[in-house]
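Re: your question about YCII-related domain-containing protein

S., sorry for the slow reply, the queue was backed up all week. Below is exactly what I fed in.
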Amino acid sequence: MPIHLCKLLPPRPTFPADMTPAEAGLMQKHAVYWQGLADRGIALVVGPVLDPAGVWGVAVVDVNDADAAAALTNEDPVISADAGFRYEIHPIPQAILRTKHQPNPL
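Result:
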């Protein structure tokens, strides 16, 4: 299954409202890391999810398997810094993908 959803869980429920300066720096490195993967076509979409139950992050990646997705998430600066973040990885067995970028008429 090549498409996987990587759910980034923050270190506490109140994040990012009470983000420390050190965490802000990590989040900048995190964004640069994932932008690089998006530029290479590995990450299909990445960003924060404004869930009313608590903000979390999403990355949908096109990789061979869950081990490859885990390798990507383990290299994320917020994980390698051991700052309390963690990922859940879920396969998407049947993804419908846009064939090319077109303007959204809605």
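The chain has a mean pLDDT of 94. The helical segments are 21-39, 66-74, 77-80.

Happy to talk it through on Thursday.
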